[in-house]
Every structure is written in C-alpha cells, then in structure tokens.
Amino acid sequence: MGKINLEGKTVCVTGGSRGLGLEITKELAKKGCYVHVFGRSPQPFSHKNVKYYQMDLLKERPAIAIPFDIVISNLGTSVGNKGFDEMEYKEVTDMLKLNVELHLWLLKNISYKKFVFVNSILSQQGLPGYSMYCASKSFIHTLNQSLRREGKDTIIIYPYKINTSLFSEIKDIWTLDANYVAQRLLRDIENGTREDFILWIFKPITLLSKMIPMFLQDILSRFLERVFYITKRKSE
Question: Any transmembrane segments, and where (predicted)?
C-alpha cells in the first residue's frame, strides 16, 4: 500500500462525539479533511470542515449517499468486568449490535475506498469477565483479515486501554492518551499500514501466548486478572 495525503479527503467517523472518536475528528480537521461525524451526544465542537449528525445508529439507519474516501468505524462498548452468567441476555445482544452488527451495516451500506476498524488488543485473547467483549472484537479481527484477503482496502488498529470512560475498572498501567492514538491512526492511514498494535509490545506477547499450551494460557489469564483488574467479579 502506498502513502496517501489526507488533505481534501472525505472521511466518515462513527462514535465521534467524545473520547477517541472526537480526537480522530479533530486531527482529521487539522489535516484538511472533510469530516462527516456520527455521534449520540450533542456536537462537541464546530469546525468549517466538520459536519455533525447527532443520532443513535443503533436506532436510526439513515440512507447515506456520500462517496467517502475513508470510513473510520470507531464502535465499541463493554459492560465492565462481568462474567457471562452474570450478564442479562439484553446486555449480550446490545453489545453484539454495537460491537459487531453496526460495523457490518457500515460495510454494506456506505460507499468507501478505505475502511478502518478501531478494534482492541482484547481481540487477541479471551479474558475472564470480558467474554462477550473479547468475542465481539475477535469477530472484527478475523473479519478484517478475510476482507483484506478478498481485496478490500482495510486498516485495523489494536489499542490497549485508552484514557476514556471505557474500562475504568482496569488499572491505569500503560494507559494510552486518546489524542496519541488518534495521531497514530492517521499516520497509519497516511503510511498505508495494514495493522497496528498500540502498544507494539502486545504483538509479540499475543503471538507467543498462542504458542504455549492451553493450561499455561489459563494461568497467564488469571495472573493478568489479579494484576490489572481493580474490581472483582461478583461470582468470585
């Protein structure tokens, strides 16, 4: 993939009203992009190159005829450190709708040249208390691989915990600044990077973890739970 200049590109950003999506929008505007932003909260800031659509895409599915150069699918939610048996069925389906189904709707209903998935490092490993989150992000991980091998122009990033309201129950160890992740994502797009693990150390860790026996993976998972989680699951 060759390098591209973002100036003048028409970009769609979902989840752009706060957190990482907001930082991505601000950085795109600085680059001279024409940004169409979808978010549930009121418009957080104004810019001559930014058009904001306040709507819940889980409830509204507008007809979008704009031919985008780039779609940045920044979608995801979590119910926190909660075991599968503790989750209500509606919590399961709501998470799948946002973490999986809405990505699919964008892929099938919007015109684009390049599609960017904002995923998670937890797509690489199942963790206790995050069964549905890990599973939904793993779906996007393998979907991206398949789409790329079918010839689609895709990019995917796997950030660790970002300094937003999501995952407040996980300790602030190596917590990433949202603006840093946004700038890095834009560099990935400009440089034609196919995938990016943020922090980079997680890529060799995830590769090595898949090479060890399952019982050792389970021990490692329990160790990570003790080290990183602030809250314990109620079932424990």
Answer: none
Q: Please state the domain extents for the chain.
A: 10-199, 209-235
Pick the closest to residue 140 from 177, 96, 187, 186 (CA basis). Answer: 96
Give the global pTM: 0.88
Distance in angstroms (rounded) separating the CA atoms of residues 135 and 76: 12
Residue 131: partners with Cβ closer than 8 Å, 6 or more residues away: 83, 84
Is it the case that residue 122 has pLDDT exceeding 90? no
Topology of domain 10-199 in CATH is: Rossmann fold (3.40.50)
Give the tokens for residue 78: 């979590």
- Non-local (6+) Cβ contacts of 175 within 8 A are 160, 161, 162, 163
Identify the band that residue 147 occupies on the pLDDT scale cut at 50, 70 and 90: very high
